[in-house]
Design a protein that fits this description.
InterPro entries: YjzH-like
Structural class: alpha+beta
Strand order of the largest sheet: 1-3-2
Protein name: DUF4177 domain-containing protein
Number of strands: 3
Pfam families: DUF4177 (PF13783)
């Protein structure tokens, strides 16, 4: 029997920071919070240095 999993998706935008360590702290905080709610990171994209980072997440419905 084939039970296809249905996924819920969302995209989060993380604003850029001047210092890399501050940006990493923000990313870690967001990923921890979202992970506690069952979200899994699928991909992260930043097109240029001072552009926002887009986090693509999913979780089963």
């Amino acid at each position: 029997m084939n039970h296809a999993v249905s996924w819920e998706q969302k995209v989060l935008e993380i604003k850029p920071k001047l210092f890399r360590k501050d940006m990493l702290a923000d990313l870690n905080e967001v990923l921890k919070r979202e992970g506690q709610q069952g979200w899994e990171l699928v991909n992260a994209v930043q097109c240029a240095a001072m552009n926002p980072v887009l986090l693509f997440l999913k979780r089963p419905r």
